[in-house]
Amino acid sequence: MKSQRGKSQRKQAASPSQSEPVEVYCRIRPIDDPGDTVCVKPIGDSLVQLIPPEISSLRNGVTKEYQYTFRQVFDETASQKAVFDQTALPLVEDLVAGKNGLLFTYGVTGSGKTYTMTGEPQDQGILPRCLDVLFNSIDNYQAKKYVFRPDRMNRFEVQTEADAMMERQRREIMPNLTTPSKASLKRPESGERICDPTKVDTVEEDNNYAVFVSYIEIYNNYVYDLLEELPYNSITGYKPPQTKILRTDSGDNMYVHNCTEVEVKQSQDAIDVFYKGQRRRKVAHTALNAESSRSHSVFNIRLVQAPLDERGEEVVQDDVMCYDSEKICVSQLSLVDLAGSERSNRTKNSGDRLKEAGNINQSLMVLRNCLEVLRENQKTGASKMVPYRDSRLTHLFKNFFDGDGKVRMIVCVNPKMTEYDETIHVMKFAEMTQEVLITKSQQSNKFDLGLTPGRRHLHELQLENAVASPEILNPPPLPSMLDFTFGPPFPLLEMVSPTDDVTTRNIIQCLNERIRRRQEMSLDFERSCTFFRSQLVEFEQDHKVTKSRLIEIEDKYSQKEKLFTKMESKNKKLERKVDELSKQLKDMERENQLLGLQVQDKNWKIQAEKNNFDKLKADFRNRLQMNNMAWEKNLEKARRQLEKEAENQLDERDRKLEMLRDIVNENDLPPATPSRARMRTAPQPTPKPRTYTNSAGIQTAISETDITSVGSSTIASSARAAAGRAGNTRVTSRSTNRIPAAKSIPNLSQVGVTPSSSKSRQPVVNPRYHRRSKSSGSAEQWLEHKPADIVETNTIFQPQMTKKKSVTKLDVKDTKTATKYVLTHQEQDSSDELVTKLIKGDVIPTLGGGAAVVFHDVETLKQVSPGSRKRRSPTTPRYDPALQWTDTEERCSVALEGHKRSRTTNL
After folding, report:
1. Verdict on whether the full-model pTM lies above 0.85
2. How far apart are CA 22 and CA 98, in angstroms?
3. pLDDT for 707-747, tens place per residue?
4. What whole-number distance in Å separates Cα of residue 722 and Cα of residue 718?
5. Feature table: binding site
6. Which residues are known binding-site members for ATP?
7. Whole-number Cα distances in Å, 710 to 649, 652, 656, 858
């Protein structure tokens, strides 16, 4: 009897109501050290939060927390039982109901995928628990071994009981020396295995079941059978395994050709087969895991079921079957342990390990591409080709993604902070996988063969009654159960002589015995007929009673069937309504998640704006406080400056009056009443002036008396305040000093002034230059001598000249109308700062018709950095004049232009 894979047909595009999304679960592995920081934190039954580390390098340098939604989230304290009940138990129920299922674990290396799948003997994982639940459910309904036989083409054949018995004798009763014993297949365990007692209640009682398991691995994109018996040679040893190919059966289902399938009758046998293949699986040591899986392993559990005959004893044979497609149902559950994705810079792999990691990452990338194309086709209605054939992994499970069963995924996460960059890619893949829709499977284990339901139960009931009442199974014998023979055989009929009485007597005795037996048989026949008639009457009476009861049962059954039809229609309506509500709920959850992300983003922006506002507010408060302090200082210093200017004006007036008095009374005695300047300053000796001649032939006389210092530099904090209001980062220090002597003027030859000979050092001046009338238009007029290579400083401290004339080269005609002269000179100081010096003097007409310049002032302009506002230390000695001023006063010092009396002596 040939079989098909359930009732599967070619897949067609299904409507959204006939499809369901891929269910994705998340399991967080416990960390080794509880004190370590984690990057994954569960915040609900279906929500996790991904926390980036402080040094995480992400796009645009922005670190942001993310939240991901799953079907169910298992934290570090979740047990293996809880994970199995939520993820794999519904797949086992579908397996018993004739539907296919695929469950695979996904995650990085060392995230707990293999532990979730296999577990430990005392705490079993998903795979052993699936086997326990399956055999707990079908334990009393299993067919005898070898009744179902695989045909190596992904189908099964049904044998008679006689053929199955011959197969058992050939494989099990007769010894096979080449096959290893079962004891050698068992895995040595440290403790006794604890079985899962769960049981599925939806088992079809009128079917016979058989379980077949197979175990394969996909290593470097090649398929290997882990249960294949390898040929052994005493010289070369075991031959290497051969790769398997993927083929398509008659129902367009993908399978591994010539893959070994082992029929098992209990869960321990299946687990022994699993550990046999586990020893041949490719594992290796890496920097991240001591036993890292180097291949994808696939453990297939196939449940074969077929209906019983009308007596409920054996599987229905071909002569009773109605359609070939209904002969047998095969359902499959595939448990896949995917290898973890790896990066070579973390695992430090090289050689074969590096090649294996490349193939693993390539297959996982193909799986992701297939799911992305599926999602795009479902969302946009496109018909792009899904690249299943790019990898053996995706090609093998093509049918599941096309709608041949339910697909579930468990994402295993290592919450260590060092795994953040890998975990975020796993989370994005899981989020994308949940959006892929899979067509609901239409397979079923219901066989419509027109046979009476409950056949197995009726047969078992008869056997129980036979054990309880043996006369039902073996009715009592009839009143005389004779041996239906006519007596002993005839004796020897040959007579030796006419007087042979012995022979005649023997013949007479034999005939009499036969006549007697015939009469007894006739009487027995009559009694048997009478007994049969009585039994037949009783049977007819029972038949009438049974028929009446059957009519009542049929009426009740028809009523139940109508009620069942009504309830079924109502159930379908409710299912459609539930599907619509579930779809709306998912849409609302997705919209809620999106709105939550938007709210989170807006809150982040609001917080950033608030921080900026607080920062600007604090900055404004600081600036306002500094401005208030600066204004207070400026007002105080402006007051001092006004007092100083008033005092300077008085000194200037006294100086002019004294000069006028000296000119008028140059041969008289000094005045009796001293001036204000003389009262404050001590008399100074009158040195002889030095005469300089420039390139234009103009003589310049500089008197040491006229170049004496007017006083030390005064502090002008108003310069700092003005510079601060102008937005400058540097302030200008301006100092006004009297020239001590002509030799202190640097580089006078550069500006066209050269010293004259020693014979003509005294300037020949006109003693009546002071009598020039200001009302005649000859008021104070400046001659500004500025070389062409002067750098403009554009500072706020510039000399104030009401009338000036600027020249780059001094000429005699320029001095005719000028009364004041200023020479601009620039140089660099020891700290490479630009220093501008303004050398000022008076232009005095000479007797020969020329002009002489008497220098009396040097004004220095330089820019310095404001620096820090340091205060004078209380430990500073008061007797040190160099430390009497703070750094701020030194940096903000400016000089106020003041004129002390100058005296020119004509020699």
Report:
1. no
2. 20
3. 333 332 322 333 333 333 333 333 333 444 444 433 333 44
4. 6
5. 107-114
6. 107-114
7. 14, 12, 16, 10
